Amino acid sequence: MKPEDNIKKLINESDVTTSSEADKRILADALENLDKLKQKKSAAAQAHVWRIITKSPFVKLAATAAAIVIVLGGIGFWLDGNNEQWWLGPQAAWGNEILASLDRVTALTYRQRGLKVRDDGPDTVGGLWEKRYAAKDKYRREVLDEANNITHIEWILPGDDGFVKYLVWPEHRCYTQEPEQTPPFYDNVMGWLQRWVKLLSKADRILGTQILEGRRCVGFEISPGMYEGFLVQVPVQVWFDVETKLPVRVERRGLTVDYDPAMKLTLIYDQFDYYTKVPADMFALQIPEGFANAHPHEIDAKKGQMVYADVPAKLTDEIIAALNEVETAVYEQHLEIAFDSGLTVYPADNIYMSRDCWRRDSDYLKDRPQKTDWYVIEKEDTKTRDADFNENNFKLIHTTVNFGDKTYSVVTYAGEGAPRHPLNRILFLAAHFGRADRMLENAKIEGVECVDMEISAAKYGGTPATTKDRVWFDVKTKLPVRMENVRTEDKYWQENVAKKVRVLNRFKWNPELPDDTFTPKIPEGFTLVDTNEP
């Protein structure tokens, strides 16, 4: 039998799963190199290659077509001078090499964050993100906010009788501990990394190379489907370091969000670090001295929300004075709901305001609002505001235009029940900052150095008692850079949601606005559906 026939026979009988195109390419390469080998007739070269094969922990004679080619012809895709493009060789060979490298890893860390992809608006990276640490029998998770402040830390560690989960809340100076039945350990984390590697022979396409985290990487994309009992629900992209062949980034694209059909979630796992030995301090439980063994809600209840920061009266006066000088402003407002599994960021509304008018553009489809609300105040004195608009001679006209169904409405308020001017809400909070729960200086938000104030709703009679307002002020201008209204309305939200918050950000103070910004515009042909005007 000819050597060529031996190669064909062994490849056909191997367990390698490749495409017909890959098989033809591998066989052609093997035959070409075999011819070269015949011409050289170098026994020394064959002996050298054999030593490499027998000493390699990654190459098994009967496991891959590449190994068969090496044995018979003295060649291999990582020995042929094209090492930089190893992904173009037989997947079984480099797949086994990656799996062997992962097997040597005993601990790893990575970042997890969510990207909200909308059909009707811009993509948004979630405000909360996580840093995860995993080993064989230990687990740690840090949840951080947009300003990289840790909101809470979770440890799962071996105990006297099973495993124990610890949760620590630095902000509230408290912690909890309880038995953990099903810890998300290293095997789970490493397991899905290994599954992605094993599925690369099923990849639909090679994404090419690009620089990620300063490293040259090659990517593969796997389409949804059932593979050897493992369900891939959405497209998955896996990127490997070209040099180390270890995963650098994984993206699960197009996850659905039940409560917002217009939005898809992409979960991104990156910033991987791999360890062959578990660092001694990686899972060291850290509960600072003086922290109470209680849930944050218990702490708030015990203290009766009567926690006060040392806020200088001068600072409060400066903030109020700066706000009173505002003539116009533009900002965005959106809702964020954060579960442990990810963050949902709803589309932002655009708010425009002056001293006696404001406007809200909302329900964006692509770059166009599907709804606009105009609020026009008519009263004798617009310089001095009352939070409830109880002055005499006051009238607020609210005009709404729905571009989707081509309708509009006009409602007039006089006295109580009128919507509050957006700036009044900010001034109202500023007036209570002397009773703030806490004050943190020098937090950087949107690239601006800020002072951070937080106040519980109970301090000013708000409901529910667990609601908190948080405002970041520019240390120079004393004007808001970001505002959050955090609500935990019932037990379900308290136990399952890290954050449910209304966010105001991207402020522009005293910009020049077009003259017709606050003039209601009702398109021709739109139908009046509601009005309380005479």
Characterization of the model:
- Helices cover 22% and strands 40% of the residues.
- Strands 1, 2, 3, 4, 5, 6, 7, 8, 9, 12, 13, 14 and 15 form a 13-stranded mixed sheet that branches.
- The chain has 534 residues and is an alpha+beta fold.
- The termini are far apart.
- It is globular and about 80 Å long.
- Helix 1 (3-13) packs antiparallel against helix 4 (65-73).
- The chain has helices spanning 3-13, 20-40, 43-55, 65-73, 91-103, 186-198, 296-303, 313-324, 422-431, 491-496, and strands at residues 107-118, 124-125, 129-135, 139-144, 150-159, 162-169, 174-180, 205-212, 215-222, 225-227, 230-232, 236-241, 247-256, 263-275, 292-293, 328-339, 342-345, 349-354, 357-365, 368-378, 395-402, 407-413, 438-445, 448-456, 468-474, 480-486, 497-509, 527-531.
Overall geometry = globular
Q: What Rg, in angstroms, do the CA atoms define?
A: 31 Å
Query: How many strands, which pairing sense, and closed or not: the largest β-sheet?
Result: 13 strands, mixed
Distance separating the two termini = 102 Å
Would you identify the regions where 5 or more consecutive residues have pLDDT less than 50?
Answer: 6-28, 30-82, 381-392
Summarize the structure.
The protein has 534 residues and is α+β, with helices and mostly antiparallel strands. 22% of the residues lie in helices and 40% in strands.
What is the topology?
Layout (H helix, E strand, L loop, with lengths): L2 H11 L6 H21 L2 H13 L9 H9 L17 H13 L3 E12 L5 E2 L3 E7 L3 E6 L5 E10 L2 E8 L4 E7 L5 H13 L6 E8 L2 E8 L2 E3 L2 E3 L3 E6 L5 E10 L6 E13 L16 E2 L2 H8 L9 H12 L3 E12 L2 E4 L3 E6 L2 E9 L2 E11 L16 E8 L4 E7 L8 H10 L6 E8 L2 E9 L11 E7 L5 E7 L4 H6 E13 L17 E5 L3
Parallel strand pairs: 7-15, 22-28
Antiparallel strand pairs: 1-2, 1-3, 1-14, 3-4, 4-5, 5-6, 6-7, 8-9, 9-12, 10-11, 12-13, 13-14, 16-17, 16-18, 16-27, 18-19, 19-20, 20-21, 21-22, 23-24, 24-25, 25-26, 26-27
Helix pairs in contact: 1-4, 2-4, 3-4, 5-6, 8-9
